[in-house]
Design brief:
Keywords: Cell membrane, Membrane, Transmembrane, Transmembrane helix, Transport. By secondary structure, this protein is mainly alpha-helical. The chain has 15 helices and two strands. The protein has two domains: about 10-60; about 70-125 and about 180-285, Orthogonal Bundle (MetI-like fold).
Length: about 290
């Protein structure tokens, strides 16, 4: 006689899945959800730390109005230049990572060694180490000072863009050095494209240039936007970010309000990336 299970198979699968994600759920509510909720609560209160504990005085939207309107410099003077730098850094990181991933996918001696070399900075370099390198000027390109490119920037480029470009050049090497995750994602994406497609293209007489634009790039569109998403979040949470550096413990309520405003700005950028991905993915759907 065949004994029926106590629960249906689909219920058992759901329970198994729930057990697998239970550690993450418990950790999220224990270490992330409560701090987030408490920081949102503090953003609407004046917070004082006393010997007897934490005192909160309702302040309503006062801190938000102060940051957005009364004292806009606290946000805008640092945010606008940073957004210009990010607009320059993101395409540089994506193009560099894509080119390196294509090179590392080739069959040559020492390929594994070079793959490790490009990913090692991600393992050994914490945010503080990167900041120290930038402070010491180790990320600059040698020809920037020798050719006085900074002087040309100040003379021929609008002031609003000259400083962001100069800052990117001052940390250019470190920006490329910090692209290991993007290279790894592009490399994994490149290996999902079947080699038979390239063999068919070569038989039809396609050159490498056409092969890249007609096969490689359309096949890597999902990975391009995955890297774009990762790079946007990575830059917006980078330790040298000027907005993050303004979040201090001197005024918990004001800092919490600034953090939540910045969080909403990040969500807007992430939403724009997702919307852009949907349109581009539909445009390339017929080529994959």
């Amino acid at each position: 006689m065949i004994r029926r299970p106590l629960l249906p198979s689909h219920t058992i699968r759901r329970l198994e899945g729930t057990l697998f994600i239970a550690p993450w759920i418990i950790g999220f509510f224990a270490f992330v959800a409560f701090p987030l909720a408490f920081s949102l609560y503090m953003s609407f209160h004046r917070v004082k730390v006393t010997v007897g504990g934490i005192e909160t005085i309702p302040n309503g939207w006062g801190y938000y109005r102060e940051i957005l309107f009364a004292d806009g410099g606290l946000l805008y003077d640092s945010l606008i230049p940073f957004l210009r730098e990010a607009a320059l850094m993101i395409p540089i990181i994506l193009v560099f990572s894509l080119l390196v991933a294509i090179l590392l996918n080739q069959n040559f001696r020492g390929r594994t060694f070079f793959r490790v070399v490009f990913f090692l900075p991600v393992i050994f370099s914490s945010g503080q180490i990167i900041l120290e390198f930038i402070k010491q000027g180790e990320g600059t390109l040698a020809f920037v000072e020798s050719l006085r490119i900074d002087a040309y920037l100040m003379s021929y480029v609008p002031a609003s863009w000259a400083q962001p470009i100069h800052n990117v050049l001052n940390s250019f090497v470190l920006v490329l050095w910090y692209s290991g995750v993007q290279i790894l994602i592009f490399l994994a994406g490149r290996q999902t494209i079947s080699s038979s497609v390239y063999e068919a293209a070569r038989i039809d007489g396609a050159d490498p240039w056409n092969t890249f634009w007609k096969i490689t790039l359309p096949g890597l569109v999902p990975f391009v936007f995955l890297n774009l998403m990762f790079t946007v979040v990575d830059l917006f949470t980078f330790p040298g970010n000027p907005i993050i550096s303004q979040v201090t413990t001197a005024n918990y309520g004001l800092s919490s309000a600034l953090a939540w405003i910045y969080f909403m700005i990040i969500l807007v950028f992430v939403g724009l990336v997702l919307g852009l991905y949907g349109k581009v993915d539909r445009a390339f759907a017929g080529k994959r």
